[in-house]
Design a protein that fits this description.
With about 750 residues, the chain is α/β, with parallel strands linked by helices. The strands form 3 sheets. An 8-stranded mixed sheet has the order 7-14-13-9-10-11-12-8. An 8-stranded parallel β-barrel has the order 15-16-17-18-19-20-21-22, surrounded by 8 helices. It has a 6-stranded antiparallel sheet with strand order 3-2-1-6-5-4. Bound molecules: phosphoenolpyruvate and magnesium ion. The site of phosphoenolpyruvate (PEP) has 10 residues, from strand 16 and helix 21.
């Protein structure tokens, strides 16, 4: 049985289109279960359940038989959301006869619902002439089959092969991914598809080896120039350091790397295009087989490069595209270099089928303030070119062909956002304080130099979290101590005399370096953050040396340790930091010992907060990870995104406890997760007593505006009220209502008010 299940699902998965998939389902299920009929009914756009495929009933009935929920036996399966197993179907009060089916001959009936994400997509039915009840095993088999097929059918529906309502045109569809960069974009889709298909290059021998190698080199030169000019085009928008990415691309083309390998194969007789595609595919397979998200990211870069070179080798020059004014760039795997292809000012939003919020392209998008949604796995991207698209970078959702009503709603939000940003510019030099003069400093989270520039423009009072892994991610090897020093100096100088909190390398989880693979079944519970760097003191020491050296004369450095779960990690890290500090003094550097803090982002650290507070100078809460670990919800998994509740009472109680623990020990506590950048949440966090709120530069003016519009006493009352509520949704609604009542509707995270 298990084998039959597996092979049927595999066959269905491999089907070209929905029609073929349904035909396979009905034929194979009928065969395996030895029944006389198998049929599939699917819900159409009007909500009716339509007979879509059958093996056993008359084919003329396909598309003609339609039942509303509750109607007939099929409709009853829908409303009950459980199987109906009858030995004599006609005797059932719900039985409804459709003469076109010819089903009067069949006595027994077993119908099971096809359910995906709590929605009944359809019903799978088997029927038999013989009057008997299907046995328990058969019923269980059909239920299992249906559960497996639900995902496949949902995907097929989402990818556009939906049950077509007769004469219907494109209707609004919603696709869910994860947020890559916040903001709203409304525009026209430009689907960026690779111009050359590496897997479709036929074998060809080469007649003249020298000429072929020369031709190959010439193509490489052209690609080098393209990549350099893409880098140039982005220069104004990203910093020199970030351009390391393009250098990494160029290095891959060298003789010592891919270039040399291909030349070798040409010498053995293969044509350049074939040799090139072979080498790229082999390397790509190696990266892919490592199953590490960041190595897969590297495979993406490799594929991108492979296609660029192949395009030249096949002399299929890339047609100059015309980009609409509000281009929403969509691709199966968007890469950082693709951004450079869009003329400045025309790129409104980004959508990538693959990738997560940590992909290079998402990191750049955040720095460039381009609303982005990643990992929209069900997106029928090939069919979207030229279509109207809304990108909701707050919620991580994408709408194609939005209805005029939804468009209007989002347009209003978009315009309000624009006006808001303009209006908020005036706040830049005003302090962040409540009406009754309670002051709470707003810091920023940075990673790229581009973030720093935006932060300064928006009046940030310091850096609450500099994610040092970002420059590490954009390279092909660990940056040297001197390279790190230069990068850190830039950050420290830009903000001096304000403080800059530098977090030591936080890799692992979903952030692995391409050149430092970590393979684990459960990476978020594995070798992450401080665990990695304490196991590799050479990495940790070089980073601390670079940080402290960079702070010479500025003295505005604070060091933050990620993923702390026990006291020993803090003691060991502090010992290493102090050792570096002493050595630097001995070497003649005039440096100060920086303040040392720990991140509270694991439940264990919450309960240890009192002890941790006695050992360090400050605490900083990473609410992104803390929420994921407290609620056991993967922060990057779109499937469970609904369960990732920032306002879950357990999260709020943990946050309040941490503040009390820090203040009892007389140290300061900040928060640097996304929560701090949510205007409603910021009010609560301030009331809880957080000494600093650190957020992305994009959110800073909004948070300042809401805090300047409320009294501390009022915020405290609101906090007391929501702390008694047992339900995260209820808390969120209460806060939104509060913002509305205070006339601050425009500061509510836009997409939360739009549920289409
Ligand atoms: C966090 O976990 O909240 C945090 C700020 O760190 P990161 O998002 O980099 O894991
Ligand atoms: Mg974290």
């Amino acid at each position: 049985m298990l084998n039959s299940l597996r092979t049927i699902v595999q066959e269905v998965n491999a089907a070209r289109d929905m029609k073929t998939a349904l035909a396979i389902i009905v034929t194979r299920v009928k065969q395996v279960m030895h029944t006389q009929v198998c049929s599939v009914y699917l819900r159409d756009a009007t909500g009716a359940y339509v007979l879509m495929a059958t093996d056993g009933l008359n084919q003329t009935a396909v598309g003609a038989v339609r039942l509303a929920a509750g109607e007939g036996l099929v409709g009853r399966v829908v409303v009950r959301e459980e199987p109906i197993n009858l030995e004599h179907a006609e005797a059932h009060p719900n039985y409804q006869y459709f003469p076109e089916t010819g089903e009067e001959r069949y006595s027994s009936f077993l119908g099971v619902p096809i359910i995906h994400h709590r929605k009944v997509l359809g019903v799978l039915v088997v029927q038999q002439i013989e009057q008997r009840r299907f046995d328990e095993g058969e019923e269980a088999f059909l239920v299992t089959m249906s559960a497996q097929l639900a995902g496949v059918i949902a995907h097929a529906e989402a990818t556009g092969v939906v049950v077509p309502a007769v004469g219907a045109k494109a209707t609004q569809a919603k696709f869910v991914g994860v947020s890559g960069a916040s903001g709203i974009a409304i525009g026209e889709a430009v689907v960026i598809a690779p111009s050359a298909d590496l897997r479709a290059v036929p074998y060809q021998a080469c007649a003249d080896v020298d000429a072929e190698i020369a031709f190959f080199q010439q193509c490489l030169t052209s690609v080098r120039e393209d990549i350099k000019s893409l880098g140039e085009q982005l220069k104004a928008r990203i910093n020199r350091e970030e351009q390391a990415l393009f250098d990494a691309y160029l290095a891959m083309l060298d003789d010592a790397s891919l270039g040399g390998e291909v030349a070798g194969r040409i010498r053995k007789g293969a044509a350049a295009a074939y040799a090139w595609s072979e080498v790229i595919i082999e390397h790509e397979n190696i990266f892919n087989s490592m199953s590490d998200p960041y190595l897969r990211e590297r495979a993406t870069d490799l594929r991108d490069l492979g296609r660029r070179v192949l395009a030249y080798l096949q002399a299929s020059n890339q047609n100059a595209r015309v980009y609409p004014d509000r281009t929403i760039l969509i691709g199966e795997e968007l890469t950082a270099s693709m951004l450079g292809e869009i003329p400045q000012g025309k790129l409104a939003g980004l959508v990538s089928v693959l990738g997560s919020s940590n992909s290079h392209v998402a990191i750049l998008a955040r720095a460039m303030d381009i609303p982005t949604v990643m990992g929209v796995v069900d997106l029928p991207f090939k069919q979207l070119n030229g279509r109207s698209i809304i990108v909701d970078g707050y919620k991580g959702s994408v709408y194609s062909d939005p209805s005029p009503a939804l468009r209007k709603q989002y347009k209003a939000i978009f315009l309000e956002e624009q006006a808001l940003v303009k209006g908020l510019e005036a706040l830049k030099h005003l302090p962040c304080q409540t009406i009754d003069k309670y002051r709470v400093p707003l810091f920023v989270n940075t990673g790229l130099m581009a973030d720093v520039l935006r932060s300064l423009e928006r009046g940030a009072e310091g850096v609450g979290l500099y994610r040092t892994e970002v420059p590490f991610l954009l390279r092909d090897r660990f940056p040297s101590e001197e390279e790190q020093r230069a990068i850190y100096r830039e950050q420290l100088e830009a903000f001096a005399p304000h403080s800059v909190t530098m977090r030591t390398l936080d890799i692992g989880g979903d952030k692995a370096l391409p050149y430092f693979p970590i393979e684990e079944d459960n990476p978020f519970l594995g070798w992450r953050g401080i665990r990695v760097t304490l196991d590799h003191p050479e990495i940790f020491l070089a980073q601390i040396r670079a940080m402290i050296k960079a702070s010479e004369g500025l003295d505005n450095l604070r060091i933050l340790l990620p993923m702390i779960t026990n006291i020993q990690e803090v003691d060991a890290s502090k010992a290493l930091i102090k050792r570096v500090y002493k050595e630097l003094l001995e070497e003649g550097y005039r440096v100060r010992l920086p303040a040392i803090g720990v991140m509270i982002e694991v439940p264990a650290a919450v309960y240890l907060a009192p002890e941790l507070s006695r050992r360090v100078d400050f605490l900083s809460v990473g609410s992104n990870d803390l929420t994921q670990y407290l609620l056991a919800v993967d922060r990057n998994n779109a499937q469970v995104a609904d369960l990732y509740q920032a306002f879950h009472p357990a999260v709020l109680r943990a946050l309040q406890y941490i503040v009390y623990a820090a203040h009892d020990a007389g140290i300061s506590v900040s928060i640097c997760g996304e929560l701090a950048g949510d205007p409603g949440a910021a009010v609560l966090l301030m009331a809880m007593g957080f000494d600093v709120l650190s957020m992305s530069a994009t959110n800073l003016p909004k948070v300042k505006s809401v805090i300047r519009g409320i009294t501390f006493a009022h915020a405290k009352r609101l906090l007391d009220e929501v702390m008694r509520m047992p339900n995260g949704d209820q808390i969120r609604q209460r806060i939104e209502q509060e913002l509305r009542d205070t006339g601050l509707t425009r500061l509510i995270r836009p997409a939360t008010s739009t549920d289409a």
